Amino acid sequence: MSRDSKAAFYALAAPLMRVNAYLYRTFRAPRRTSMKVHLGPGQKNYLNGWINVDANMFSAKCDLWVDLRQRLPFINETVAAFYSHHVIEHLPDLDGHFRDVFRCLKPGGVYRVGGPNGDASIDRFLKGDIDWFSTFPDRHNSCGGRLDNYIMCRGEHLHLLTNNYLTELLTTAGFQVIGLYLPTKETSNVELFGQCLATEWESTFDAPHTIIIEALKP
Ligand SMILES: C[S@@+](CC[C@H](N)C(=O)[O-])C[C@H]1O[C@@H](n2cnc3c(N)ncnc32)[C@H](O)[C@@H]1O
User: Fold this and answer.
1) Atom 2, ligand 1: which residue's CA is nearest?
2) What spacing in Å lies between the alpha carbon of 42 and ligand 1's midpoint?
3) How far apart are CA 81 and CA 73, in angstroms?
4) Which residues does the chain have with pLDDT short of 70?
């Protein structure tokens, strides 16, 4: 989807998603439960047994059609685990996102969150390691062009995700950071997140492309 089509889609669909979220929250959202919620699964990463939430009804497979820029449609303290992978860098209000996830989680619940690794990409740029970067979405031959690809993704990404920035946002929201996992494929809680690990595509383990953090609601 081009940037203009995407903007048009969100302009048209956001009010409808707001209504859908309201109806779900009012009539369907479980009140006593330990559900697991996967934010932004896309097409391939749908997780069975989770509530998969996405806005893009054309490209994603989801159970709940909701705009993650809006308030999540879950009752306070009803979610045991949230998972998002390469999603939060698309959201304008990261601070609000973490506070809302915190609201929905039960005490003892965990958020596993990952996105483009700002720390590793800056390190690789400074080392001139052009091969660490891909040529997606634009074909650049310079390390700087590829860094721009990776961090900004032609304007699709709104944030640079680094360890200490994510830690600041999570702790401000009330979380306790329990794991900074480099590489991916590791978790503090296999029972909750074991299924997620199989969908993560990390290939470089000394400078992972994805930064992953797990944070607990005390
Ligand atoms: C880059 S894809 C990541 C897909 C998958 N999690 C993965 O790791 O391959 C980002 C996903 O987040 C979803 N997304 C982005 N912004 C969203 C929003 N405001 N509301 C709901 N879903 C959103 C997109 O539709 C897409 O499915």
Assistant:
1) 42
2) 6
3) 15
4) 182-184, 203-204
